[in-house]
Amino acid sequence: MDKTVPQNGKSKRGGKRKAEVEATTTAKSSNVHPLADALMVLERVAQGDLSARVQALSGDDPAVVQLGELINRALSRAITSVSRDGIEKASELLVKVADEGDLTSWNVTSEDAQLRGLFDGVGRVLETQRTFVREINEAALRLSSSANEVLAASTQHETSSTEQAAAIHETTATMEELKHASAQIAENAGSVARVAEETLGAARSGRTAIHEFTTAMQQIRSDGLAVVDSISKLSKRVERIGTVVEVIDEIADRSDLLALNAALEGSRAGEAGKGFSIVAAEMRRLAENVLESTKEIKNLISEIRESTHAAAAAAEASRRATEQGEKLGSVAAQSVDGILSGVQETSDAARVINLATQQQRTATEQVVASMSEIEDVTRQTTQASRQATSAAADLAQLANRLAELIKRFRAD
Amino acid sequence: MIEAASASECSLLFFEIAGQTFAADPLEVVRVDRRDTDLPIVEIMPATPKGTRVLVAKTASGEFQLPVDRVMGVRRFPNSSLRRPPALALAVSGARANELMGVVLDGQTPVPIMDLKTISARAKSRAKARGR
Lengths: 412, 132
Known about the structure:
The complex is a heterodimer.
Chain A: H1 9-30, H2 34-46, H3 62-100, H4 113-268, H5 274-407
Chain B: E1 9-17, E2 20-24, E3 29-34, E4 53-59, E5 62-68, E6 70-78, E7 82-83, H1 87-93, E8 100-106, E9 109-114, H2 116-131
Parallel strand pairs in B: 2-9
Antiparallel strand pairs in B: 1-2, 1-6, 3-4, 4-5, 7-8, 8-9
């Protein structure tokens, strides 16, 4: 504005001088009659062109030349007056634009072609500013609305992130407890598996022991039958020995009788039977020895018979006991087989549970680690949401500020 | 009368009844045998012997069996060891006086010598009495 509006008389005089020079140059070069030239200038002035000037200021008629000069001087004065009025009005409107932001009141024009171009340019600039102000105003309103929406969304997101962080923290704590519980369960399952394995080993040992027991019982029964058979044979042989001993005893008794009678005969023979009596006595002593021996043998046979009977009774009792033992062993084997089957299933189940709990513990630890990472990310998200909320709030304030600033300009 | 085995010795048959030792003249014993139920039994002592041996004696009426617990054999004794039966020996043995021939000293132990013929005759007289 300052460059287009003349600020002092020096600038005005400079412009006037320039127009006179241009008009003089044009008239001299055209070699027109001064009066005709004056008429043409007036015609142009009538048409609103105040820049026209009389060029033909030389001639024979001084009055015409003076007329031409007066016209030029009048036009120069007129232009100066019109320009001053336009510039003042333009200054007032520009001050109004600057102070009040009023872009709608620009209606300045000028008879001066140069000022008119300047005022028209300012008018187009203000029109462009009006357009800008309208668009900026609309954009500011939209920006404010969007900033408020962003602020609301950020606030909502921040709240959600905070709640999510709290929920994730709580979930992480729960998963941490679950991890400890899973570890405890895994440890207990491992203990159960170990105990089940030991029980399984004990049950297998028990089954082996029962099998060995049953085998031993069968062997004992077999041996017992052999013993019974041997006892029976022994008893028969003892009976046979007894029979033989009876025969021997009978023979010895007869021999004793014969010896006694021989001694009697020897005594009857007097001195001649003395030697006979001695032989008879010797025979009798032998017979008595045999009888003593057979008596001992009989006693031994009797003892053997009693022992054999006792052994047979014991063997029979042993046979019954071994049969009972075999039955009990069979029952025990079936029971242990059942126990072994159950313990086997228990051991398998414990092993599966142990494996599953190990996997569960690993998975839980992974989940805990993931939850920890999620918690970190959520914490960062919450922090970012707070920053975004703060930025959105700042943006909303800036949008409001911009709207307030734009409201200073009146474009409509 | 005990038959002398020689001029200075005699033979005696020793036997035992109820733990008591007795002797007899071998010539009065037909034989030593087992208990035979077919022969009449004559008890030397009131106590019943539990042994299986009998001394078979012979009288005019036949043979008798005299049960004893044990026959110990024929032994020779010097005649000097023979004694007449003392009253004490009779009392101790419980034998009848006429059925005791004497006593032989077996070392310091007096052993009664039984008269089997007299004893058999006792049995014979009993049989006659039962027959009347």
